[in-house]
Amino acid sequence: ERDSEDSQHSTRPPTTPFWKMAAAPHSAFQRKGAMRQQKIHMVKAHPFQAKFFKQPTFCSHCKEFMWGLGKQGYQCNVCQFVCHKKCHEFVNFPCTGSGVDMEGGVKRPHKFESKSYASPTFCDQCGSLLYGLIKQGHQCKECKINVHKRCMGSVPPMCGLDHTERRGRINIDVTFQTAASGASIINLVINECKNLQPMDPNGLADPYVKIYVKPDPSKSTKLKTEVVRCNLNPVFREQFKIDVKPADMHKRLSIAVWDWDRASSNDFMGCLSFSLAEIKDAGSKGLHGWFKLLDAKNGENYSVPIMEESAVGAMTARFEEAKVKPSASKAAPAAAASAAAAVPPSSRPTSVSSPSPAASATGAGAEKAARPQSTTSLGGASAGAGAGA
To answer: For 96-105, what is the mean pLDDT?
Structure first.
């Protein structure tokens, strides 16, 4: 009786068996048939998605191997372009299957032909191996890129234009200034770098920028920025002034990115160079923007700017307009041959036997009699010229 009275006066809610709680979960935790969709990253009309690759694959942007046990990188769902997660935001051409054309409207299609490879070769579009014993893939005759047969239609029409960045990019501003005293000064601003190569075991790097005016055996013009620790996208924002003599115009301004190491020697990451005469010709406008980091051999002599899509289209259009056209001397025989080919066979003159002397005289007299009429029919100027003669 006491237990029954206590149960009547108790304010505790009645307990529910665990099997009933499992059968009727709370409505706030119900998914109601929803499906989890993978995130899509849109870059230049490319719908990139993270993907796990079952076979060895190389990035089509930086040409480095895609490491990892999970989802190693991104792949476009339309054109199958493959790249690292860190590289996908730097892709500078639109997807070929999206219907979006490059700005400028000029296309440079590739000239593919089947080829047999003696060593393992990977596709420059999807990054996977070209399988087979003979004629494993196709190669462009001009720019020498290698693709699968199934990838030929997905390759962007940019033959001769290199869209890869193997060592990253750097943003700089270079201007040439002449002081009132006649001295020449180069103003150099190192802004930032992006998408650098990892050089340390932790997958990062400690980059800094080194500046020279080469050749300089004594290294008297050596300048460098501060080291940015553990960063592949360092921001420097440092400004330098370099005095230039008139006798130094044949030299080059070298800008190199290095990885700082405490226990071992520093590692080279990439470089580029400008001719001092080139900087002087640019004047106050200067050279500014993003530039590719090249290897040591090419970086000592070249600098490759990274242009926007509109600038690439405009430059390609200028190249198309500047193509060498055939001269008039070569065009005349071609026009005569095409005109002769257009004449029907029935109206073409047939070969005749040589006429007798009398017939020749008669024909010459007839031709002389008919000549004034023919000149008059061509115009008054021709008839007057004949009369004056």
So the answer is: 76
